[in-house]
């Protein structure tokens, strides 16, 4: 990874790359939340507004190159667990999101969240970084249908006669060559080239394969202008969401967002060197406050909790290091209040090579883990593998933290379990019970 001081051009290219890697949320988030009864167009507007304002706050206030947007996983919990599973009205669930954000703000103001981050043992930070890198890689392979589900073996390699898989392989090799040659804007150029390569699918060849992605072609125009829908702004039910029966929902939103953001800040910092003199993620307090504001605003705008995005590693791998990356990426969300149909131009296949290669950069800290010290190696290994294997950052760090505490106590190293980690463990146990 390039360690030279970034130029403005590099920062802008990194911001564009980060946006391209994260902009899928503009479509994916509404598609999930609309199943809870919220209007699709309203959630699009809420998603864009939250991503714009909070990414700008992350760039200008926290000065970190990290995009903030509605979190994946959190939107699934909102729809399938809170609304459909518990029968909560969508407006009440939005209120629960708001109160989870308020809880975050209180924890941040009193530096509780910062203390929790600092309680994470350094070896586990390395493991979390590597685990997130593997998770991003898995997402890339999945988006390209390079790895697919199998009833016999759980997962398997795809059919290499599939035009989508072949296009991905060519795009991956082209992007890898550009990155290896340190071509400026390599990842963004790779995404562009892969999009161009995907254009013939469904037109000249591979109709059936393209239909598996839910459309006749992978790259297509579906209009240009769509008016924004502000109907969800302020529609949250603040009073109805304060019932005691909804406390587990608020706690679940708060806990999941807490560890998603912490793991993202820690993992990205370890992989990129964006750390302060104490080895902590740079501008940590301001970054956590930004994340707390994002969750609070999410309930007001009409979407699931906002969180820092692991896909920001794409821009960091491009050489981005300052808040300008987040400002550029966040600003690029805003036009899609009116131009959301243009998102169909870049398919998930086109960003898949970039996501796979990000894993190359984020796996580097694995060499810093003392694998011969089993009381450290075992918890790190569990955290590292469970993040991609469980398809959940939260599950990986939960079992990493709990196993660290249990094993350290078992070998008589209680001094390696700080008080803050006991608090983290309590949250971990609570999440498993919920």
From TrEMBL:
Membrane topology for this entry?
Answer: Multi-pass membrane protein
Domain of life per record? Bacteria
User: Is the keyword Transport in the record?
Assistant: yes
Can you say where in the cell this protein is located? Endomembrane system
- Where are the bilayer-spanning segments? 12-32, 38-60, 67-86, 92-112, 124-148, 160-179, 186-205, 345-366, 378-402
Q: Does the keyword Nucleotide-binding apply?
A: no
The record's annotation in Pfam families points to: Xan_ur_permease
What are the alphabetically sorted keywords of the record? Answer: Membrane, Transmembrane, Transmembrane helix, Transport
Query: Per the similarity annotation, which family is this?
Result: Belongs to the nucleobase:cation symporter-2 (NCS2) (TC 2.A.40) family. Azg-like subfamily.
Recorded protein name is: NCS2 family permease
């Amino acid at each position: 990874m390039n360690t030279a001081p970034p130029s403005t051009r590099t920062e802008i290219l990194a911001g564009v790359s980060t946006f391209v890697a994260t902009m899928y949320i503009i479509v994916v988030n509404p598609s999930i939340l609309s199943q809870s009864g919220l209007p699709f167009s309203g959630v699009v507007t809420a998603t864009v507004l939250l991503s714009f304002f909070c990414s700008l706050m992350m760039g200008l206030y926290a000065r970190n190159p990290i995009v903030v947007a509605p979190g994946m996983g959190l939107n699934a919990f909102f729809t399938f667990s809170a609304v459909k599973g518990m029968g909560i009205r969508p407006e009440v669930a939005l209120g629960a999101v708001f109160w989870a954000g308020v809880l975050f703000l209180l924890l941040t103001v009193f530096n509780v969240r910062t203390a929790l981050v600092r309680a994470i043992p350094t070896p586990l930070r390395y493991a979390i970084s590597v685990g997130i890198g593997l998770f991003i890689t898995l997402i890339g392979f999945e988006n390209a249908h390079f790895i697919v589900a199998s009833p016999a073996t759980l997962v398997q390699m795809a059919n290499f006669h599939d035009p989508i898989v072949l296009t991905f392989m060519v795009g991956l090799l082209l992007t890898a060559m550009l990155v290896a040659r340190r071509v400026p804007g390599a990842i963004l150029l790779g995404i562009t080239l892969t999009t161009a390569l995907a254009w013939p699918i469904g037109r000249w060849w591979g109709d059936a394969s393209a239909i598996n992605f839910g459309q006749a072609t992978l790259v297509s125009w579906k209009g240009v202008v769509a008016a924004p829908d502000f109907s969800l702004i302020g529609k949250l039910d603040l009073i109805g969401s304060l019932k005691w029966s909804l406390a587990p929902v608020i706690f679940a939103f708060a806990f999941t967002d807490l560890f998603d953001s912490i793991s993202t800040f820690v993992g990205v910092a370890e992989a990129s060197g964006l750390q302060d003199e104490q080895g902590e993620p740079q501008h940590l307090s301001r970054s956590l406050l930004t994340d707390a504001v994002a969750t609070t605003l999410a309930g007001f705008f009409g979407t699931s909790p906002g969180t820092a995005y692991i896909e920001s590693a794409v821009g960091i791998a491009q050489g981005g290091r300052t808040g300008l990356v987040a400002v550029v990426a966040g600003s690029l969300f805003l036009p899609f209040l009116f131009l959301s149909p243009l998102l169909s131009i870049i398919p998930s296949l086109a960003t898949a090579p970039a996501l796979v290669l990000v894993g190359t950069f984020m796996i580097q800290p694995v060499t810093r883990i003392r694998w011969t010290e089993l009381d450290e190696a075992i918890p790190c290994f569990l955290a590292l593998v469970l993040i991609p294997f469980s398809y959940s950052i939260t599950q990986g760090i939960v079992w990493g933290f709990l196993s660290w505490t249990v094993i350290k106590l078992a070998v008589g190293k209680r001094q390696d379990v700080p008080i803050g980690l006991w608090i983290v463990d309590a949250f971990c146990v609570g999440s498993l019970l919920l």
